[in-house]
Amino acid sequence: MHQSHSLRLNVTRRLPVATLVLVAFAIVVSLVPGMANWLQYDRLAVAHGAVWRLFTAHFVHCSYEHLFWDALALGALGWLCEREGVSRFLATVTAAALAIPLTLSFAQPQMLTYRGLSGIDSALFALLAALIVRRAIAEQNWPRLGMAILISVGFALKIGFEVSTGGTLFVDSTAAGMTPVPLAHIVGGLIGLAFAASHQIYWPHDNQRWSLE
After folding, report:
1. Per-residue pLDDT, 24
2. Which of 24, 80, 149, 195 is deepest in the core (most CB within 10 A)?
3. CATH class name, domain 2-202
């Protein structure tokens, strides 16, 4: 009985519960008619006190294709980041969720509405990549370091493509009726790097090793 109980606890710890909740919320929002318009970032609505939209806007999407790619990235990146530490994962998501629309509201005053998880996904990608790079250097694991750097360069090139072309790689923005916002990905990436840099100072109880086990 005791061994069975321990096994259940161990399985529960391995499940990315917070990530699953966030992905499920994004899916539910897309299935309930009218909810998207109530939760998306709307400049005028926020100015009149609907501040919840700063956070919920990230879980609203312009099409099912948009939702699929954003939720897939959140599921994968969130799972890996959550295993590194739930507290840092949630703090990164919360900081990115608030910083992105606030930054966009000042830097892009012409933007009236905003939807999508890609900014938060960018924050989690940067967080995970930075932690892997740091650990690879500490362990002198040069193949892992090279792979992490290569993937990070690919991420930077993706943002460069978005800035230069005004399009996206994975979603047909024209068909979805949306305008890509590369600045959201840049802000998200900076948030992720900031939380990775604060790892040893503010997150002493997080896991010390990165693995897929």
Report:
1. 97
2. 195
3. mainly alpha
Q: What is the DSSP letter of 103?
A: H
Q: Which of 213, 189, 212, 199 is nearest to 85 (CA)?
A: 199
pTM of structure: 0.84
Phi, psi for residue 130 in degrees, rounded to 5: -65, -40
Closest listed residue to residue 103, CA positions, set 36, 186, 4, 194: 186
Give me the residue spans of the domains in the chain: 2-202
Query: Contact, 23 vs 117, CB < 8 A?
Result: no
User: Are 184 and 68 a contacting pair, CB within 8 Å?
Assistant: no
- Tokens read off for 121: 């996904």
With a pLDDT cut of 90, the percent of the chain lying above it is 67
Q: What pLDDT, in 10s, does the model give residues 87-146?
A: 999 999 999 999 999 999 999 999 999 999 999 999 999 999 999 999 899 999 999 999
Determine whether 191 is exposed, middle or buried from the number of CB atoms within 10 Å of its CB (0-12, 13-18, 19+): buried
Q: d(Cα 72, Cα 117) in Å, to the nearest integer?
A: 10
CA atoms within 13 A on the CB side of 84: 25
- With residues binned 3-state (H G I as helix, E B as strand, rest as coil), the percentages for the chain, rounded to 5, are 75, 0, 25
